[in-house]
From TrEMBL:
Keywords: Lyase, Pyridoxal phosphate. Its cofactor is pyridoxal 5'-phosphate. It comes from Alpinimonas psychrophila. Its EC number is 4.4.1.13. One of its GO terms (molecular function) is pyridoxal phosphate binding. Belongs to the class-II pyridoxal-phosphate-dependent aminotransferase family. MalY/PatB cystathionine beta-lyase subfamily. InterPro entries: Aminotransferase_I/II_large, Class-II_PLP-Dep_Aminotrans, PyrdxlP-dep_Trfase, PyrdxlP-dep_Trfase_major, PyrdxlP-dep_Trfase_small. This is cysteine-S-conjugate beta-lyase.
């Protein structure tokens, strides 16, 4: 990998190179549409990941997974990045985060136990939970996109009144608003959960992607949240969605639950997935630091571009992730903004409705791309307004 790739991963690949990719981001739409929707980054992989997978392929090491390499690598990363001590004994690998979440829900609660989510939030949360037959309660975020103590307490109180027990499923950091929950906010959540007898499950897949001035707080380091269960993966931070692997992480209070899950588990993580994700956690630190530096530049650039090309839209400056939340309702478009921008501007953003009814009128923009592509994408979106 060249020095430019190390220090500027988001400036390395041209549009022509990216269009040769066969992944969903670049193949769902035709070449006339710029895709800034699904959570894939326009970066070359970290060299240690390439080396680890190539070495496995050359050895023919493509069998079934074995051992705790993933948990050990994650524990090393968590200690170095967040001063969080994880015992690999309290981890086990699953195929992906959503599978892990549903398996944890089924393990720690009965079929009559409802689940609270915090919309607008990652759309598959609702889809997967309702597919399990669980009742779903909404604790809507504040207008600033942050955890809302009032809506959380209302949902938790309803659960306590029903005497079923409950679960709250959070996105930490939050997708799509890009909010990095503070320790104080998570302590508030933990205190309410303790008061009302609610168990916490935390999706921490975007955890390493913190912008300067913000820190990630693992839920398991929060006072009173020791019985929470985390489901995470290197897939979003290291661009490994195609190499399926995720990790369930608990603490001593959840050890019995994790042991039961491990004993009953059938579909494990991909062996190559574990190899790649473990290499990312072991040796990908310099690469992800370079990615974060580029993302920090892009998040500010995107703010300027929204102000220039979509004047009146409200841009939530992301504190984490590479996903930006934009309220397009002030633009008074005649329909769903994402659909209009796609059809008339030839640029694909994620529709806000994907993240729940509360997301209507919004778009989510993946800004993990080159400044050139990002600039052209917002110019195209702005052309829709100019044409009115």
């Amino acid at each position: 990998m060249t020095s430019m790739q190390i220090f500027h991963p988001l400036q390395t690949l041209s549009l022509t190179q990216l269009q040769r990719r066969q992944s969903a981001k670049w193949q769902r739409y035709g070449k006339d549409i710029l895709p800034l929707w699904v959570a894939e980054m326009d970066v070359p992989l970290a060299q240690p990941i390439i080396d680890a997978v190539q070495n496995a392929m050359e050895m023919g090491d493509t069998g079934y997974g074995n051992g705790d390499a993933y948990g050990e690598a994650f524990a090393e990363f968590a200690l170095a990045r967040w001063n969080w001590t994880v015992d690999p004994v309290d981890t086990f690998a699953v195929i992906d985060v959503l599978t892990g979440i549903t398996e944890v829900i089924a393990q720690i609660s009965g079929e009559d136990v409802p689940v609270v989510i915090t919309p607008p939030v990652y759309g598959p949360f609702e889809k997967y939970v309702t597919r399990m037959g669980r009742k779903l309660l909404h604790a809507v975020l504040t207008p600033e996109g942050r955890l809302n103590p009032e809506t959380l307490e209302t949902a938790f109180a309803a659960i306590k009144k029903a005497r079923t027990g409950g679960i709250v499923l959070i996105s930490n950091p939050h997708n799509p608003t890009g909010v990095s929950h503070t320790r104080a906010e998570l302590e508030m959540l933990s205190a309410l959960a303790t008061t009302y007898g609610i168990r916490i499950i935390s999706d921490e897949i975007h955890a390493p992607l913190q912008m300067p001035g913000h820190e990630f707080t693992p839920i398991l380091t929060v006072t009173g949240a020791e019985s929470a269960i985390v489901v995470t993966s290197a897939s979003k931070s290291f661009n490994l969605a195609g190499l399926k692997a995720a990790l369930v992480v608990g603490g001593p209070p959840s050890r019995a639950d994790l042991n039961a899950l491990r004993e009953g588990h059938v579909h494990g993580a991909s062996h190559l997935g574990v190899i790649s994700h473990a290499a990312a956690y072991h040796s990908g630190g310099p690469w992800i630091d370079a990615v974060i530096a580029d993302l920090n530049t892009n998040r500010h650039l995107l703010g300027d571009l929204v102000a220039k090309h979509l004047p009146g839209a409200h841009y939530f400056l992301p504190e984490s992730t590479y996903l930006a939340w934009v309220d397009c309702r002030p633009l008074q478009l005649a329909g769903d903004p994402a659909q209009i921008f796609e059809e008339q501007g030839k640029v694909a953003f994620s529709p806000g409705s994907f993240f729940g009814d509360e997301g209507a009128g919004h778009v989510r923009i993946n800004f993990a791309t080159s400044p050139t592509i990002l600039t052209e994408a917002l110019r195209r979106a702005g052309s829709v307004l100019l044409a009115r």
